[in-house]
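Structure in, sequence out. Go:
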């Protein structure tokens, strides 16, 4: 298990600052104490990114969280964990992206962790690889097997559109599939800098949906005990223990 950048973290999802102001107090009076308390709570939404190995899940999440295409990637083991805080209609919300492993051998011991307290799902296929699109029903079945709420936002993303001369998955076919499963389709490229805004728009669309949705479980409770705002990637290998992600087992709302 490899955990990066977690050691100095502490909770700031609820920030509290206090200020004691004595300068106006008369000399013969007990000091006038003004306490300014500021409490902010930031909602955190867990989004899982799933699909076959090599479709570009790591590159897409990296593009959104770091603003660039990674120099090199290796097959994800377990899950890579990225976050970005964004402003949606004057509310700061945190998107916590779970970049899951596509290879069965690297995911099997983690699967139940992926599907716990999920707020949204991004299904990714590679537009140049038909088999990755044909796997989509299998990924949807896996969500159903893990009792994922059917109401949570889901989106379908066809990646690697920059390879226009190798596109093998027809847009109409993909759109029909997306329509039949009640989700929007986006075709994009994590690699093409000109499509960077597009990747941004995909996750922003999701963020707007999440902001306006009434999640089944509290988005305040997803990461208790850690401020992960500066964490780029946490590799958790084959176990979630020690990750610092504490689920909300009772699904109690903290609002
Ligand atoms: N041309 C092109 N290549 C891409 C794009 N996105 C990813 N790739 C390449 O596809 C390969 C796999 O990308 P990853 O992001 O590691 O794939 P993954 O889905 O995370 O794979 P697993 O971790 O094994 O599940 C890498 O060689 C990337 O450079 C894209 O938009 N265009
Ligand atoms: Mg990966």
């Amino acid at each position: 298990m490899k955990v990066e950048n977690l050691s100095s973290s502490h909770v700031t999802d609820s920030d509290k600052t206090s200020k004691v102001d004595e300068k106006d107090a008369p000399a013969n009076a007990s000091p006038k104490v003004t306490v300014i308390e500021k409490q902010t709570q930031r909602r955190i939404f867990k989004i899982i990114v799933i699909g076959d190995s090599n479709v570009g899940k790591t590159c897409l999440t990296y593009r959104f969280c770091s603003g660039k295409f990674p120099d090199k990637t290796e097959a994800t083991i377990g899950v890579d964990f990225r976050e970005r805080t964004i402003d949606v209609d004057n509310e700061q919300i945190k998107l916590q992206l779970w970049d899951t492993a596509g290879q069965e051998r690297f995911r099997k011991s983690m699967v139940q962790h992926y599907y716990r307290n999920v707020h949204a799902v991004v299904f990714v296929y590679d537009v140049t690889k038909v088999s990755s699109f044909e796997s989509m029903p299998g990924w949807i079945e896996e969500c159903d097997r893990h009792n994922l709420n059917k109401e949570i936002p889901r989106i379908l993303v066809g990646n690697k559109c920059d390879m226009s001369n190798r596109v093998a998955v027809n847009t109409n076919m993909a759109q029909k599939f997306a329509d039949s499963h009640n989700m929007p389709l986006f075709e994009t490229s994590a690699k093409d800098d000109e499509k960077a805004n597009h990747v941004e728009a995909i996750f922003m669309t999701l963020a707007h949906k999440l902001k306006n949705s009434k999640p089944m479980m509290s988005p305040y409770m997803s990461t208790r005990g850690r401020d992960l705002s500066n964490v780029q990637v946490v590799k958790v290998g084959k176990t979630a223990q020690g990750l610092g992600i504490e689920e909300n087992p009772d699904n109690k709302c903290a609002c």
